[in-house]
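Internal ticket - ligand job 153, magnesium ion:
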Amino acid sequence: TPQERTFIAVKPDGVQRALVGEIIKRFEARGYKLVGLKMLVPSKALAEKHYADLRTKPFFKGLVEYMTNGKAPVVGMVWEGQDVIRQGRRMLGATNPLESDAGTIRGDFCISIGRNIIHGSDSYESALKEITLWFNENELADWQLANTEWINS
Ligand code: DAT
Ligand code: MG
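stdout (structure tokens):
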């Protein structure tokens, strides 16, 4: 089965609300493989590059401030597996938590679009861009899940 990678980040509000374990648990339990993990307060330059597509939006400045102010760090992750980019977005739920289905991460744990606790790449192109932006190649682990044949067929 073809494997792909996506960038998932627990935002400062998700870290502050102690949801890191819950979020990792959902991706692990689904059968995805963790290949990158780091905690950092992103620089303004990193956050602005990460959200470059949104730079003309009225909320851009506030978004970058909230990601970078250091009141809590961000936990950046790379997850690998079948259809993980699209499935990751489904597991996150809609951008506006008031529209997110119950059972999704946003639908279960938050209510405000400005505090929606988690980021996930929205396409193959953005996943590649974001993984490259947040991680060096030598920070990504090349390993085999021992139970892969019970997850992938
Ligand atoms: P997503 O995070 O679901 O990919 P996006 O890329 O459109 O959504 O926007 C990035 C983040 O910007 C989003 O998670 C929260 C914030 N945001 C988006 N729309 C917003 C709005 N109308 N008001 C405030 N923040 C917003
Ligand atoms: Mg987005």
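Auto-summary: The pocket of magnesium ion (ligand 2) is lined by residues 122 (CB under 6 Å). The two ends are 7 Å apart (CA to CA).
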